[in-house]
Amino acid sequence: CVTTAFQKVILGNVTVSGTRRSSSLWISGFQSTTVWSSANEVSLVDTNDGIVEVKALNDQVFAIYKDHSQWIGIGSASLFPFVFELKDQQIGPVSPASVVQAEGAHYYLGQDGDIYKFDGQRCVSIGSTVKKKVRNMINWPLSDRIHGVFDPIYREIWWYMADPANLLRAITYHLPSETKAAAFSSPHIYSQNITASATWNQLGSVSWNSLTGSWNTIANTYPTWDSFGGDGRPGVILADDTGQVYRGSEAGSDDGNTFTANWYSPLKDYSGVGVINRIDALESFFERNTSGAALTVAPAGSDNLTLGAELLDTSVVQFSLESSDSTTQKRRTFE
């Protein structure tokens, strides 16, 4: 694993002269990727566990995630380039790519199926409500393939559990805000095996066909290369095991090919985590398509509130009430 901080490159869990040193870090020279001195190797052996990932918290400090401990390296002007501190001893990340940086902190999926947040001082569990479900979703022999990505537009962290033998599963964490509490989504299933994810800037810039004027006058309109300009927005891209790349978290498709997904279990509670609801009506946002996709609705409860419910429209839908299955037509309002 690798990161950069304090204008140096840091390698973790290194192999030196054919010998694996799972608790060791190797630090490059100042502003160099080619100068590596043996004097800049450090071993964090106090906790007797291996390094899983190293990741910068800012330009001066980086985090070291081990199997059962969390450390930080702080840039120093002394003889050795970093000072190291053990900060916590929680369960470590399930894979290097499961550690995601978002808004000044790191979040990761742990080796116990829990979700953790580390801000450089404390490592705390935040996934107790989904821990059991996530643990059952993971194909543990392939857990080192799990990867995560932060969507800055919607302030969501997505963890994908790549597994070519089964439908790929994912879970989303919605960061808290002034008006909304933090919350996890229900698990998702995708029709493709998503093996990579990353943030990027989606650009919409000047093209040859959109240039104005003539070659004789083009310098009047675009006096420099920067004059061509362009706009951009942060986004997420995903890739599957066939090499296909998709845009994530936005309406659209990849070269006209749709990217299908569905929820593995019901949506999270709309009124907030830990709130009990009595449903008067459910209004569908599903639209018709050429394949006539089916929708499964399964209200759950111990009373008779949902008995006698009606679903009407031009496409067929299956739903379950009080453990009995029915097939009927649906409309957009379910009451």
Structural class computed from helices and strand pairing: mainly beta
Distance between the termini: 53 Å
Q: How big is the Rg? A: 25 Å
Write down the secondary-structure element order: EEEEEEEEEEEEHEEEEEEHEEEEEEEE
Helix fraction by DSSP (H/I, runs of at least 4): under 10%
The largest sheet, given as strand count, sense and whether it forms a barrel, is: 6 strands, antiparallel
Shape: globular
Question: What do the pLDDT scores average to?
Answer: 77
* Total helical elements: 2
Count of DSSP strands: 26
- The portion of residues forming beta strands comes to 35-45%
Low-confidence stretches: 284-293, 299-335
Element layout with pairings:
Blueprint: E1 2-5, E2 8-16, E3 19-28, E4 36-43, E5 51-56, E6 61-66, E7 70-75, E8 82-88, E9 100-102, E10 105-109, E11 115-118, E12 123-125, H1 131-137, E13 147-151, E14 156-161, E15 168-174, E16 183-184, E17 188-190, E18 194-205, H2 218-221, E19 230-240, E20 245-248, E21 261-263, E22 282-283, E23 296-297, E24 316-321, E25 324-329, E26 333-334
Parallel strand pairs: 23-24
Antiparallel strand pairs: 1-2, 2-3, 3-4, 5-6, 6-7, 7-8, 9-10, 10-11, 11-12, 13-14, 14-15, 15-16, 15-17, 17-21, 18-19, 19-20, 22-26, 24-25
